[in-house]
Design goal:
The structure holds 2 protein chains of 2 kinds.
Chain A lengths: L1 E9 L4 H11 L4 E8 L5 E9 L8 H6 L4 E6 L5 E12 L5 H10 L3 E5 L3 E8 L1 H11 L4 E6 L3 E4 L5 H9 L12
Antiparallel strand pairs in A: 1-3, 1-4, 2-3, 5-7, 5-8, 5-9, 6-7
Chain B lengths: L1 E3 H11 L4 E4 L6 H7 L5 E4 L3 H15 L3 E5 L3 H4 L2 H9 L4 E7 L15 H5 L5 E5 L5 H13 L6 E6 H5 L1 E3 L20 H13 L3 E5 L1 H6 L2 H11 L3 E3 L14 E4 L6 H9 L2 E5 L5 H4 L10 E6 L13 E4 L2 H8 L9 H15 L14 H11 L5 E4 L3 H9 L8 E2 L10 H11 L5 E6 H6 L4 H7 L4 E6 L4 H10 L14 H7 L3 E5 L5 H10 L4 E6 L32
Parallel strand pairs in B: 2-3, 2-4, 4-5, 5-7, 6-7, 9-10, 9-12, 10-11, 12-13, 13-14, 15-16, 15-17, 17-18, 18-20, 19-20
Antiparallel strand pairs in B: 1-8
Helix pairs in contact in B: 1-2, 1-7, 3-5, 3-18, 12-15, 16-17, 16-23
The chains are: A alpha+beta, B alpha/beta.
Chain lengths: 181, 567
């Protein structure tokens, strides 16, 4: 079962390491990971996809919340969402098949971003299914190199991970110390 | 005022209320030590950095305040690791400060350089690397806040030598903490509280399980009121000992692997478990699928990740235990549970015939005798720090604590060698207390060098070594589960009485039961620290014992003495 986690974290050195460590310690293999800044200064957004049938996958969220720099986490696996992956594929071409490949790219609404005498770089953005089937189509021509950004995801509709957080928590924390006895 | 980073550090520590720091100097902390002179904070020179964290940990557990350990870069910092994990596993508020090489050298394999924040990432509640002197005040303040709030834990601050040295214009200002992702102040929904009240009302066979969270939250009075009002018996985890008075009729004793038989039977037969600030460790539950099969379970803990982690519960209440009980208490009805309590009393009677302290004199000196006598001679009022292994379990069984914050031991990590340094820290936290260490011959040798720290600081601690010539707990497992093959468990020790003398302390050797009390009284009367080397029964076992991954009521019991008991 594939799970997609979205986390808002403080944009500081080492935070990604802490987040990934939560998965590493429990021997999850991260399938894809995408990190970037958000519209909120100082806050980054991480999308992590893991494929696991372990029951502990449901416990990832409370463990992530133990990290001081993690502000918000959601498992959006079961939510209506838009997911996108950007892929660049460098594919072998010959003068005979170049136009055929370009037509295929057109069908998939992919873009040719680099043309050389014996190769093309094609960029495609889409959900996993679309991207994978395009890559399969290109395979017989000889893929020289391929790079993927990793999955990014967003909930559909007006729901946002930010809204949930600000509405439920606000950005204020108590500052007074609390000691025992 | 013009101040160096090191001077700023000491002032910030002072502002956090720090009175004592346990540490060991080195190249990367020279500026910090140079600035120590002008600080009112007392520095305790340890003999190994592991001792420094254990002392800070013991200090924290004895006082509820935050302990501070200080070490240099590289080996100094790596020597802290065992102590940091010990504090982490037992949720003890400790702040560790380490020196780091100058920032331009980080990542270049400089002399005594180690990636300390990398190493300690999974074993601290949080950690920091400071390369800029201006960050020192806010990070120190944040570190203390994080260490002491919510579920406490160790926080490490790694400070580069150049940040310690740089001089800036600085005045102390009150600071606020801005941690958008940190939520130590969660509280349960009111309808969850109502649900709890309902479950408590219908329970016929309730049992309260108290853990260290009771002590951390300072909820002893509320738990006491809850127990007496609902007439619910109270079982304790190892780290919860002392949170409920052991001399109270509702108190059962310790639960789990070496818990008393009747305690585990109570849990297995209960219809409601009230888990207060405990985490259902595997040493408590035994085989999970067999644990408390007939009970509804209410789990109160401040750490949301503990709810449903080890044991699936019917209701989890996340928040500060004291606050939650304050809200629950006015809604709780009084109850009797006479039938349930008398059933438990029956199990107790059945078990007491196997209790070693009730056995007749047979010429053997059992550790249980010794600990029972220490308990008697100290009126159950001493602060007792145990090491790890058989000595620890016997202490938990035979030293009955009536007061909170008087039982200190390494529970989660089970760190041998914890006892001596932790006791030193505890003594600094509560100098007025009579402090006893109960250790084994194996564990004591792991951190024995801290005896010199005792001497240098001139403090008074009584050390009782249960010397059986074996790594006893491992030997016990070899006896039960590896057909008596005592592989590498016999251990030769130095003459501990002479070790004491070599330190200018007093050493006593005890080989017979009739000498026990005299030796204890003598140790109590002397002004200096004393080591008593108790030569106890060599192949004694801790009973009862739940084999690992078995149900907690399927225990290996001490064989009933042949002659005098035929019940």
């Amino acid at each position: 079962m594939r799970h997609t986690f979205v986390a808002l974290v403080e944009d500081k050195p080492g935070v990604l390491n802490r987040v990934v460590s939560v998965f590493r310690r429990r021997t999850f293999n991260i399938e894809s990971l995408a990190v970037g800044q958000t519209n909120q200064p100082g806050i980054s957004r991480i999308t992590i996809v893991v494929d696991s049938d372990k029951t502990e996958v449901d416990r990832i969220i409370p463990y992530m919340y133990k990290l001081i720099n993690v502000i918000q986490v959601e498992d959006i696996t079961y939510k209506p969402r838009v997911t996108r992956d950007l892929v660049m594929v460098k594919v072998n071409t010959t003068s005979e098949n170049r136009s055929e490949i370009m037509k295929l790219a057109d069908v998939f609404r992919a873009h040719i971003v680099d043309v050389a005498s014996n190769s093309l770089i094609i960029e495609i953005t889409g959900d996993e299914e679309k991207v994978n089937s395009f890559v399969d189509v290109l395979r017989p021509y000889g893929i020289i190199e391929m790079v993927r950004t990793g999955m990014v995801a967003m909930e559909r509709g007006t729901e946002t991970i930010f809204n949930n957080y600000f509405e439920s928590q606000g950005f204020r924390m108590p500052v007074e110390f609390k000691f025992a006895s | 005022m013009k101040l160096s980073g090191a001077q700023i550090l000491w002032e910030c520590l002072e502002r956090e209320g720090v009175e004592v720091v346990f540490g060991y100097p080195g190249g990367a902390t020279l500026p910090i030590y140079d600035a120590l002179d002008s600080s009112p904070i007392h520095h305790v020179l340890v003999r190994h950095e592991q001792g420094a964290v254990h002392m800070a940990d013991g200090y924290a557990r004895a006082s509820g305040r935050i302990g501070v350990a200080l070490a240099t870069s590289g080996p100094g910092a790596t020597n802290l690791i065992t102590g940091i994990v010990t504090a982490f596993m037992d949720s003890s508020p400790v702040v560790c400060i380490t020196g780091q090489v100058i920032s331009p050298l980080i990542g270049y394999d400089a002399f005594q350089e180690t990636d300390v924040t990398g190493i300690t990432l999974p074993i601290t509640k949080h950690n920091y690397l400071i390369t800029d002197v201006h960050e020192i005040p806010s990070i120190v303040h944040e570190a203390f806040y994080i260490a002491g709030s919510g579920r406490p834990g160790p926080v490490l601050i790694d400070i580069t030598k150049d940040a310690q040295q740089e001089v800036i214009e600085w005045e102390y200002e009150e600071m606020t903490v801005h941690l958008p992702g940190y939520r130590p102040d969660l509280s349960p929904r009111s309808n969850d509280l109502a649900y709890a009240v309902q479950m408590i009302r219908v329970a016929k066979r309730p049992v309260i399980l108290v853990g260290q969270g009771v002590l951390t939250s300072g909820a002893m009075a509320e738990v006491f009121e809850f127990a007496t009002q609902t007439q619910s018996p109270v079982a304790s985890t190892l780290l919860g000992l002392g949170s409920f008075p052991a001399n109270h009729p509702l108190y059962l004793g310790m639960m789990g692997m070496h818990g008393e038989a009747w305690v585990n039977q109570t849990i297995q037969n209960a219809d409601l478990l009230l888990a207060f600030g405990m985490r259902f460790s595997d040493r408590v539950t035994g085989k999970i699928s067999t644990f408390a099969p007939n009970a509804k379970k209410i789990h109160i803990d401040i750490d949301p990740s503990e709810i449903n982690k080890n044991v699936t519960v019917d209701l989890g209440l996340v928040g500060d235990l004291k606050e939650i009980l304050e809200k629950l208490l006015p809604q709780i009805e009084s109850a009797e549970h006479a039938e349930w309590l008398s059933q438990i009393e029956g199990w107790k009677q059945d078990a007491s015939v196997r209790d070693i302290k009730n056995m007749q004199e047979n010429g053997h000196l059992h550790a249980a005798h010794v600990i029972h006598d220490i308990w008697r001679c100290t009126n159950g009022d001493a602060l007792v720090v145990s090491d790890v292994g058989q000595n620890q379990m016997w202490t938990a069984q035979y030293y009955r604590h009536n007061q909170p914050y008087t039982a200190i031991t390494s529970g989660g990590l089970g760190t041998m060698g914890f006892g001596l340094p932790a006791a030193i820290g505890a003594k600094f936290a509560r100098p007025e207390k009579e402090v006893w260490i109960i250790a084994g011959d194996g564990g004591f040798q792991m951190t024995q060098s801290e005896l010199s720290t005792i001497v240098q600081e001139g403090i008074k601690i009584n050390i009782a070594i249960m010397n059986n010539g074996y790594l006893g707990m491992v030997r016990q497992w070899q006896e039960f589960f590896y057909e008596n093959r005592y592989s590498s468990t016999p251990i030769i020790s130095p003459d501990f009485a002479k070790i004491a003398e070599a330190h200018g302390l007093t050493g006593i050797r005890v080989t017979k039961r009739e000498e026990v009390e005299t030796a204890i009284r003598k140790a109590q009367s002397l002004p200096e620290s004393v080591i008593i080397d108790f030569r106890v029964e060599k192949e004694d076992c801790v009973y009862p014992m739940v084999p690992s991954n078995a149900a907690i009521d399927s225990m290996i019991r001490r064989p009933v003495p042949q002659a005098d008991h035929q019940k």
